[in-house]
Amino acid sequence: MGHEHDCAHPLLRVEELGEAPQAVRLLGEDWVVWRDGQGQARAARDQCPHRGARLSLGRVCAGQLECPYHGWRFDGDGRCVAIPAVPGFTPPASHGLAVWPLTAFAGLWWLLPTDAALPPAFAAEHEPRLRKLTVGPFDVATSAPRVVENFLDMAHFGFVHEGWLGERSHGEVPPYQVDATPDGLHAHGCRAWQPRSNLQSTEGSWVDYEYRVPAPYTAVLEKAPDAQQGWREGIALFICPRDEEHSRAWFRLAVPDWDSSDEQVAAFQHTIFAQDQPVLESQRPRRLPLSGEVHSAADRMSSAYRRWLRERGVGFGVLP
Ligand code: FES
């Protein structure tokens, strides 16, 4: 999968990780995630070094991960600290696990390979007048770049999300600009017709957007600053590439809606995603093709995204 191993990857929501170890999938491999004795989240390959059992089927005892098969225990650094069948034995280093500490960011636990950085926080994340909420996971049977492109795509609103995010009678995508940034890409001057552009509106109007791609599988949408308040509402999309054709996504919302319950906010995102999902899963190939798809001027951002991924050697699996 190229340079995906250099990226930070979200694995699960912070509150999803309780007492029990969790199984997650990343880049075609199974991982186990647990909290050590200090509450620090840890990740390791989900395979016991003894006889290969899945460690995620075990349990956590005093911060140590216990294998479900013979009860070998591993501490937060991956050292094997107990082999119950041989109580007096001190296991050597070779009996241990390679362990990665996870980092909490935007409501998610992230695995950072050596030298990888977290995606930069978007401005709305730091705006105290906006409510922050992480919604998901959303599992979808397609590659991560297909999900990113869908998020960047304004031309589908009036069709996939008719009456919600767009109307087919307002399908035009006015010209917009795409610039390279030190981290990735920035699309600005974007405009989309929305049937209900904000909580107060009663009729449709054009909404001004900006999009950023600061990492291969992260995209951020920010609306134009609120005229009275000055803040910019934003939504970030974070994707875990489970393998080359399966993705797990979360949305990080920074929105002015303080009245709806968490469940109501999440329900809206689930409705929108449920509209996207069948179309996303119908796209062939599931991995971005190197050639064979055609573009329109409305696809300027996704075309730039493909070029940018290609330059990084990321995200393409299908040869022409
Ligand atoms: Fe894990 Fe034996 S397979 S302890």
Automatic annotation (TrEMBL):
It comes from the Bacteria. Keywords: 2Fe-2S, Dioxygenase, Iron, Iron-sulfur, Metal-binding, Oxidoreductase. Gene3D superfamilies: Naphthalene 1,2-dioxygenase Alpha Subunit, Chain A, domain 1, Rieske [2Fe-2S] iron-sulphur domain. Residues 8-111 form the Rieske domain. The keyword Ubl conjugation does not apply. The keyword Protease does not apply. One of its GO terms (molecular function) is metal ion binding. This is Aromatic ring-hydroxylating dioxygenase subunit alpha. The lineage of its organism: Bacteria, Pseudomonadati, Pseudomonadota, Betaproteobacteria, Burkholderiales.
